[in-house]
């Protein structure tokens, strides 16, 4: 067989790749996972009874902004990790920006209260359960995002799975804000962050198995 004939045969029936396939997979995964997290929240913890008041309270939206911005940062990095050969570069720093901001805010709050009140601001009322509640709500998101990432071609499986876990934990934290009574920045800086980092750590550990080609 001549070379030209071989090339023509191999090229027969090839269709161009949909350039939006990655975004569609992630949108489906995030919508399905967030719906699952919201269902778990309503079935197990419930929405806080004063949610209507919270929706017009600025500090509530500041609380939501923390995991939302971290979710955006995780997604920015994850989008690069699922593309073979793509360089993440300075995008690695993006998820760290909201963490740094909330830590600065927490330190500012703690510096302006008496020393006797600082521990209560950091522990709140639910420090024992908050991170694990977030991890529980992240389970549907973890499943959905692992499915989405498996549709791609990541080469750094640990990093991709860790960022998927961070994204799952961040979206789960947004959902958890509908229930959580804690309204102090130092609490979010410790326990919300812990709840988001646990799925990321599990993703790092389990990534080679979950995303193996």
Q: What's the rounded overall pLDDT mean?
A: 90
Kindly provide the radius of gyration, computed on alpha-carbon positions and rounded to a whole number of angstroms: 21 Å
Number of strands: 0
Share in β-strands:
under 5%
Write a short abstract of this structure:
The protein is mostly helical and 213 residues long.
Could you characterize what this model shows?
72% of the residues lie in helices and 0% in strands. It is an all-alpha fold and 213 residues long. The chain has one domain (20-210). α2 (21-44) packs antiparallel against α7 and α7 (130-150) packs parallel to α9 (185-210). The longest helix has 26 residues, at 185-210. The protein starts with a helix and ends with a helix. The model has no long low-confidence stretch (mean pLDDT 90). Keywords: Membrane, Plasmid, Transmembrane, Transmembrane helix. The chain crosses the membrane at residues 25-47, 59-78, 90-111, 131-149, 156-176, 188-207. This is DUF1109 domain-containing protein.
Question: Which key terms come to mind for this protein?
Answer:
plasmid, globular, mainly alpha, 213 residues
Question: What's the structural blueprint in terms of helices and strands?
Answer:
Blueprint lengths: L2 H9 L9 H24 L6 H4 L3 H24 L14 H16 L3 H9 L6 H21 L6 H20 L8 H26 L3
Helix pairs in contact: 2-7, 2-8, 4-5, 4-8, 5-9, 7-8, 7-9, 8-9
Keywords: Membrane, Plasmid, Transmembrane, Transmembrane helix
Protein name: DUF1109 domain-containing protein
Organism: Cupriavidus metallidurans (strain ATCC 43123 / DSM 2839 / NBRC 102507 / CH34) (Ralstonia metallidurans)
């Amino acid at each position: 067989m001549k070379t030209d004939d071989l090339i023509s045969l191999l090229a027969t029936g090839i269709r161009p790749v949909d350039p939006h396939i990655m975004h569609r997979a992630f949108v489906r995964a995030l919508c399905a996972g967030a719906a699952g997290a919201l269902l778990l929240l309503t079935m197990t913890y419930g929405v806080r009874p004063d949610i209507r008041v919270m929706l017009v309270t600025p500090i509530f939206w500041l609380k939501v902004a923390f995991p939302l911005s971290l979710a955006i940062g995780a997604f920015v990095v994850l989008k690069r990790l699922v593309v073979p050969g793509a360089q993440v570069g300075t995008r690695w720093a993006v998820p760290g920006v909201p963490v740094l901001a909330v830590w600065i805010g927490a330190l500012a709050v703690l510096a302006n209260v008496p020393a006797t009140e600082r521990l209560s601001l950091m522990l709140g009322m639910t420090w024992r359960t908050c991170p694990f509640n977030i991890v529980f709500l992240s389970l549907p998101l973890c499943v959905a995002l692992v499915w989405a990432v498996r549709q791609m071609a990541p080469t750094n499986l640990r990093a991709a799975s860790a960022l998927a876990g961070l994204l799952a934990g961040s979206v789960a934290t947004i959902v958890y804000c509908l229930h959580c009574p804690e309204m102090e920045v130092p609490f979010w800086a410790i326990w919300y962050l812990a709840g988001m980092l646990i799925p990321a750590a599990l993703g790092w550990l389990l990534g080679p198995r979950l995303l193996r080609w």
